[in-house]
Structures are given as structure tokens and as C-alpha cells.
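[INFO] parsing input record for Acyl-CoA thioesterase
[DEBUG] input buffer:
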Amino acid sequence: MNTQIEPVLLPVDREPVIRVIPMPKDSNAAGDVFGGWIMSQVDLAGSVPATAHAKGRIATVAVNSFVFKEPVFVGDLCSFYAEITKVGRTSIQIYVEVYAQRRLQPDQVAKVTEAYVTYVAVDNDRKPRPVDPLK
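[DEBUG] output buffer:
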């Protein structure tokens, strides 16, 4: 039985919407990056395609699922990939995947997080407004 694990690679068919390196201030006493820091970055990453599709202001209304698969460490290069999965009348659901290049080593990659986040397009009065359907 072959127990060798296939190496994880960054997606080559798309570009990350953001890339960031967590710093010591983003970690706990054990040196792991706080989950809340990762969650805030996921929200930012998800907002990029949501804002583009909505052609304007959006608001985060739900974190539908959020899975921490592996820890993130200070010095990892985190790449956040986001894509639209569903569009409602006013809402846009985004799937976000996060990969970490361990200590900037391109051959040491881990998929660390995945999440579904829902945003709603809002007008100047912060009231929901319609968005275009997904093409």
C-alpha cells in the first residue's frame, strides 16, 4: 500500500484575490495565527468578487461555513482564492479557499481554510438592492 501523500500545489488556473503574510501580532502564544485574523482576511477576499459583481457596495450577511483545515503560522504566505458560487436577487455567495506557502517556500504548500460567505448588495441607505444574475 502506497501511503505517500500527493503534494499540495497552488491553483494554476486562477489568480489569488489577495496575498498576505501574517505577522507576530496576528498570532497567539503558541505561534499559530488567530482564527479571527484568518476569518477577517477571508471576508476581505470574498468581498472582491462580490463587490465587482454587485457593481457597488455590499455587506456581509452570513458565514455559511468555515473550515480550518491546518494551522497558519507567522511568516506563511497566504493566498486567498475567491469565486462566486450562487447569486440571488440581492445576494451573492462566495467560496473562498486559502493556501499557505510555509515560510515562503513554494514547494511547501497547505490548503489551510475554506469558507462560504454570503454578501448582500446595498444602496446608499444600506437597503438591499438587486444584482445581475450569474452568467
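[INFO] The beta strands are 18-20, 58-68, 77-87, 91-101, 109-121.
[INFO] shutting down worker
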